[in-house]
Every structure is written in C-alpha cells, then in structure tokens.
Structure of Response regulator:
Amino acid sequence: MSSNEVNARSIEILLVEDNPGDARLTIEAMREAKMSNRIHVVEDGVEAMQFLRREGRFGDAPRPDLILLDLNLPKKDGRAVLAEVKADPALKRIPVVVLTTSRAEEDVLRAYDLHANCYVTKPVDLAQFMKIVAQIEEFWIKVVVLPKG
C-alpha cells in the first residue's frame, strides 16, 4: 500500500455547525471533491461533546478523525468545546479545524491558545466557500497523517 493510499483513506468527520445552510454547503463541497468521507453533523456544543463522548443518542458514534468546529454555537460555544476536547486525554489528539465567520484577532489567538490545529474564516462568496472547504478536506485527508484512535 502506497503512502498516498494510506493518506487518502476514508475518514470520519464531525462537523459542528448550527447554520443549516453552512452545514449543507460544507457537505456539498466535500461531495464535489469526490472523497468518500463520512460526515456527521451536530448543531451545538452540547451535542458535539455528547457525540465525542458517545453519550445518549450518540452511544454508537464513531470516533472522528477530524473535527470542523464553528465558534459561535448555541448551548455551548465552540471555544468551550475546543477547550474540553483539548483537555480530554481521550480526545485531544483529534485535529480541530476552526471554521467560522469570525475574523476577530482575539478569536484567532484564543483558538490557537486552546490548541486548535488551524483557523479558517468562512468566506462570504459561495464559490470561495466551496473552494476552501474542498482545500481543507484535501489537506487533512490526502496530505496530513492523522493519528489512529
């Protein structure tokens, strides 16, 4: 098996996004990239942590290989989710890509202080949004070697 085959394997992605339109566009962009990844969507920070800890209705949830995390979420915001994920020994190695509308320098700094793996601002332009999501997927699936479990 070549290194490209290993790096191009199908992965589990957790998308934490409360905006149904952005979630739909993200899923569509990933489908257009023709990669066979499984995308799971939760709409708030509480559900994100339940999914990651396999609690309640998420008892049989797969462990994600990658988390795409919005910062501005209901119930528990993305900053709190990021802090919990990176403080949990069972979850801290899962790469977290912050994918948000916020361009505020304080949000960028705080996300990296909380050990986000990267910070991407959602573009307003639809075509650019689709391109950026495809690039995120391309990089994290084909280029980066992700930790196993």
